[in-house]
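2024-03-11 09:14:02 INFO worker-7 job=invfold-0412 stage=load source=structure_tokens
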């Protein structure tokens, strides 16, 4: 038997069903006996949503109102009634088993599974197998429209069935028409047999991935904006209803081996990938997740591995992987097993442990552990931040892809997925310096909302804003140029920094509390250069580590270069400090994290974290000012600066396959205006000739 099922949400209808995360508000169904060609009672049930605000399209198409829905039952009760009524109808027809049949896949995959997952209740087994009427119809009638273009109405018209929707209630006409279509497919001329149902995976299967595998680029997406503590199971839950390939979740790490809020996900086919893209900006908890297309090559760079040690460790499939961080460097396998204890036995004993080491064999303090079941893993996670030796140990859920990234790619000389470094200076301010030394006249803000800007920080500081040094606010960005949640502020004295730390620590900003610590200029510089600052003191940035300190260490094979024609427009000495020599790696940390020009070229350096240009309420250009005021400020300080509108622009969010032609086409019609620069920039003859030449864009 089939149970023909139709549903609608409070939002989009048709091809966009479920794409806006709106809740289910209507279910209509009817049992069909394929052998006797008899039908059961047609049932229509309204569903009470948590949010009864209906979209205009929903009101127009369905005719439903918030008042009517307010009297309905919630989804869990409706699904219980569904099971009971279907069982009753089957008994009347003399049947015992059934399979769902829906118009396309959206109702099952994009509405029911995601919504029940968010509301934390389980769907019955019948919702994990169903027939897609559109696919079955196209199989039965190959000359009909493609599956993607099919609708209930087009299928009915192809068969010459009546299509007057006004005669029936919304949902009732759809189910009756679907039943009529099924009977036409069962007629003597067609004799269609329903044999290959669609399936929804019950759970995500973990497993390793080899670099020699072929991964279809049409099956891979990139998810961005994930909570840093999210695991592969959390990501699989976000995509609930869609079939992820075995071992198809790869969490991306930064150069320090920490998760950067991105993941690459591989689905079983392109159809599932296309449905995943419709979940762009759906929510995981309170955060929205961006979903974009990615390539198979990118997935293999993250998830692929060839190490025999890793392959042997991951050969035991369907294991729960836990990552341990902060282990004493002298810790042995016996120490780790003793720390975990008998309540969480490790799969295979010592064979279930994998220590992460630097290329020279030194331990990193990280290890991965295998557990045979969820219960043992949960017991292990309860030991988060317990003490081993003299150090507290952090424990997190992990994935096979993360194991391969951390073990195989620890501090590689090139990033796993190349990202464009930030432009040297988005807006060119007057010269500034970042203080160094051991005087604790700075504060560090940790845990900022990712949407927080300079204005939010100044409001958070309150009366202490007046004690900030000029150009003393430093927002720390990650590799993608996005806020990392950290910021540094230079105060006028150590006493002022102490008072701010005492007053603002754990004060709320938007919906998050922010930690505020007093620190020194030296500590601030280390973090801005990619190092870490924690209870154990300073950990130097990757480029300062002894094992990774060849003079040519860089994250990119070649430095990003601004063409000489563009560099000629600016006086290098006005933009950047004097260059550092390679031997400077043994000296004190540099005073800034922007790097210098050499001859007519400007080079951009890459670090794990880098600051945005320091700003403060006194910075020229921070608060919008008329061009005349900017020019006056430039004249007074004898500092060449660019006018606020124009100058350099930074483009974010470009498609990964974008080339120079696409960028030039995007800016078609916008040209340089050299007259705007007169009197504001001291131009050399070469620069003036560039400006007066035929207008064109210079891509940096």
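2024-03-11 09:14:09 INFO worker-7 stage=emit residues=700
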């Amino acid at each position: 038997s089939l149970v023909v099922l139709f549903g609608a949400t409070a939002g989009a209808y048709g091809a966009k069903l479920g794409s806006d995360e709106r809740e289910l508000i209507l279910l209509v169904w009817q049992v069909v006996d394929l052998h006797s060609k008899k039908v059961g009672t047609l049932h229509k049930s309204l569903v009470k949503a948590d949010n009864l605000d209906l979209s205009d399209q929903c009101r127009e198409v369905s005719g439903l109102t918030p008042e009517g829905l307010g009297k309905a039952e919630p989804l869990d009760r409706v699904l219980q009634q569904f099971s009971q009524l279907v069982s009753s109808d089957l008994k009347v027809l003399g049947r015992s088993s059934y399979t769902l049949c829906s118009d396309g896949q959206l109702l099952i995959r994009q509405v029911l599974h995601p919504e029940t997952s968010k509301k934390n209740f389980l769907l019955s087994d019948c919702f994990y197998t169903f027939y897609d009427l559109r696919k079955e119809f196209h199989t039965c009638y190959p000359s009909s429209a493609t599956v993607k273009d099919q609708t209930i109405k087009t299928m009915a018209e192809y068969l010459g069935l009546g299509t007057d929707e006004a005669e029936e209630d919304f949902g009732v006409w759809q189910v009756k028409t679907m039943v009529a279509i099924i009977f036409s497919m069962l007629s003597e001329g067609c004799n269609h047999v329903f044999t290959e149902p669609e399936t929804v995976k019950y759970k995500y299967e973990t497993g390793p991935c080899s670099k020699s595998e072929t991964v279809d680029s049409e099956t891979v997406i990139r998810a961005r904006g994930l909570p840093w503590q999210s695991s592969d199971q959390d990501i699989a839950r976000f995509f609930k209803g869609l079939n992820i390939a075995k071992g198809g979740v790869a969490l991306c790490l930064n150069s320090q081996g920490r998760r950067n809020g991105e993941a690459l996900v591989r689905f079983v086919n392109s159809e599932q990938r296309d449905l995943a893209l419709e979940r762009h900006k759906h929510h995981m908890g309170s955060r929205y997740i961006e979903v974009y297309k990615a390539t198979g090559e990118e997935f293999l760079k993250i998830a692929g591995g060839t190490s025999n040690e890793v392959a042997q460790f991951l050969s035991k499939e369907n294991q729960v992987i836990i990552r341990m961080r902060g282990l004493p460097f002298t810790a042995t396998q016996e120490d780790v097993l003793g720390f975990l204890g008998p309540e969480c036995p490790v799969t295979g004993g010592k064979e279930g442990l994998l220590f992460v080491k630097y290329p020279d064999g030194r331990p990193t303090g990280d290890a991965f552990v295998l557990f045979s079941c969820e219960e043992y893993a949960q017991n292990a996670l309860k030991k988060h931040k317990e003490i081993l030796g003299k150090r507290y140990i952090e424990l997190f859920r992990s994935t096979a892809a993360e194991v391969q990234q951390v073990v195989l790619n620890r501090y590689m000389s090139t990033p796993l997925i190349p990202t464009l470094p930030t432009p040297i200076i988005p807006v060119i301010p007057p010269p500034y310096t970042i203080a160094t030394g051991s005087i604790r006249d700075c504060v560090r803000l940790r845990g900022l909302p990712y949407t927080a800007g300079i204005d939010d920080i100044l409001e958070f500081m309150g009366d202490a804003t007046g004690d900030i040094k000029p150009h003393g606010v430093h927002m720390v960005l990650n590799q993608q140029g996005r806020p990392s949640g950290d910021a540094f502020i230079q105060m006028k004295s150590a006493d002022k920094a102490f008072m701010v730390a005492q007053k603002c620590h754990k004060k709320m900003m938007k919906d998050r509390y922010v930690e505020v610590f007093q620190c020194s200029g030296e500590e601030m510089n280390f973090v801005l250069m990619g190092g870490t600052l924690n209870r154990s003191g300073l950990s130097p940035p990757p480029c300062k580590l002894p094992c990774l300190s060849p003079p040519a260490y860089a994250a990119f094979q070649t430095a990003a270069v601004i063409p000489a024609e563009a560099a000629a427009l600016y006086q290098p000495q006005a933009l950047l400090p004097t260059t550092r020599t390679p031997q400077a790696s043994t000296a004190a940390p540099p005073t800034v994290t922007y790097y210098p020009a050499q001859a007519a070229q400007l080079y951009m350096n890459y670090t794990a974290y880098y600051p945005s240009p320091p700003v403060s309420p006194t910075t020229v250009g921070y608060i919008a000012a008329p061009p005349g005021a900017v020019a006056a400020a430039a004249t007074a300080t004898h500092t060449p600066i660019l006018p606020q509108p124009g100058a350099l622009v930074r483009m974010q969010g470009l498609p990964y396959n974008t080339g120079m032609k696409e960028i030039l086409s995007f800016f078609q019609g916008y040209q340089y205006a050299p007259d705007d620069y007169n009197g504001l920039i001291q131009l050399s003859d070469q620069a003036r000739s560039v400006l007066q030449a035929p207008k064109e864009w210079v891509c940096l």
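2024-03-11 09:14:09 INFO worker-7 stage=report msg="The CA atoms of residues 468 and 491 lie 5 Å apart."
2024-03-11 09:14:10 INFO worker-7 job finished
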